[in-house]
Each structure stands twice: as structure tokens, then as C-alpha cells.
Amino acid sequence: MTPFSDNILFFDAEFSSLEFESSHLLSFGAVTLDGSASYYCEIEYDGDVSEFVRTEVLPSLTAPKISMDQARREIAEFIRAHYDTPPYLMTYVYKYDAYHWYKLFGYNDDLTHRIIIDFASMLFTVGIDPEENSADRRAEFLQSHGVDISTLRTHNALDDARALRAAYRAVVLAEQR
Predict the structure, then answer these.
(1) How many folded domains does the chain comprise?
(2) Does a structural domain hold residue 3?
(3) Residue 126 is assigned to a structural domain of this protein
(4) Rounded to an integer, what distance in angstroms lies between the CA atom of residue 12 and that of residue 6?
(5) Cβ-count burial of 12 within 10 angstroms (0-12 exposed, 13-18 middle, 19+ buried)?
(6) Which residues neighbour 108 within 8 Å (Cβ) at sequence distance 6 or greater?
(7) Can you tell me the distance from the alpha carbon of 92 to that of 58, in angstroms, rounded to the nearest whole number?
(8) CATH number of domain containing 128
(9) What is the extent of the structural domain holding 74?
(10) Could you list the pLDDT tens digit for every one of the 177 residues in the chain?
């Protein structure tokens, strides 16, 4: 598999539930393909969260919280500072993280390419079961591809973006060799 472009920004989001209409963004993390730059923020929210989020995500949200408007400004500044042209966004599973991207920036932002790349579909295309890299099996998947995961926390948006970048590099870029 030869990627169309290396102009990629890997991102992940943590959110209040899997219910699209009522879900709220809780944190956002992003990392460049070369790993030289990253961004992370936690967003103010005091509404209801799912039981899973309450037990697995909220305990890791320890950074100062910012408003949705401030998050929007900071993410835009990060992208403009690190990309000369709009990057392609890549997430692990399109429907969840992309939904929150679109809630932040709409469908026609000028920051990124409109189509968000879905890594799970890429795995499927190269003959790898996407469930092998699901959140509950990610550590095993990454270790099997030679990725050191000792510093990565699960359900942390920045570390999940880093894990996505590592999985992409291990699988997709390895296919080119």
C-alpha cells in the first residue's frame, strides 16, 4: 500500500458518550506524522457522561479545562503552525472522532482536507482485522508490531493519537519496504 500523501495529522478525541446527538467533546489530541509536534487539550463540560467514560476516561482528565471556543482557536493555531497546506486528518474509527471534529469546525473548514482518513479501513484493506487494534487490544497489537507502548496511556486523546501514528508507521509504512 502506498499512501497518497504524507501530509497527515493523527488525532483522537475523548467524549462523553457514544450517543452522537448528546455527546460532548472532553479532550482532543493530535500528533504530526514525524512525531515532532503534538497538541492536547481538555474541554470544559459538566454534563452527563456514560458509565464507561466515568470510570475509564474521566480519571485521566487532569489538565486545566478550556472552553470549546478556546480549543477551536488553539487547534487551528497548531495546524497552521505545523502545516503549509491543509493536512489529511487520520483517526482510528471515523464515525466517532470525526463526528466531534465536525462539531468543532463544521464540514467545510479550511484547516484540513474535508475527507477524514479511517485507519481501521486501511487495516482491513491490507488484510488485518481492525478489531486487533481496537482500544482493548491495542497494546498487544502495537507490541506485535514492535512499538514500545510503555509510556502510552489508554483513553488519553494525545496518547491514543500517538498510538495511532505508531500503528500507521508500523503497518502502512512497513508495507512500503
Answers:
(1) 1
(2) no
(3) yes
(4) 18
(5) buried
(6) 114
(7) 21
(8) 3.30.420.10
(9) 8-176
(10) 688 999 999 999 999 988 878 899 999 999 999 999 999 999 999 999 999 999 999 999 999 999 999 999 999 999 999 999 999 999 987 788 999 999 999 887 889 998 899 998 888 888 888 877 666 677 787 788 777 777 888 889 999 999 899 989 988 766 554
